[in-house]
Amino acid sequence: MISIDLYFSRVPVLIFANKQDLVSSAPASEISKRLKLTEIRDRVWQIQGCSALTNEGVSEGIKWVAETIKSK
Known about the structure:
The protein is α+β, with helices and mostly antiparallel strands. Helix content is 36%, strand content 14%. The chain is built from 3 helices and 2 strands.
């Protein structure tokens, strides 16, 4: 039986940095620093700037997940 930790370590992580259409929003790079995403070393991850309002960046994030899963 595969341990749950081992199973989930293979799951890619996508974080959407929403509301990028607002001037006051933090850029994806700043959010990445605040969340210390560079410290995640046991799985692949991506932070995707997006705006759910304009749909900008949403399809790119979904495409990344699909391609990442497909390549495994």
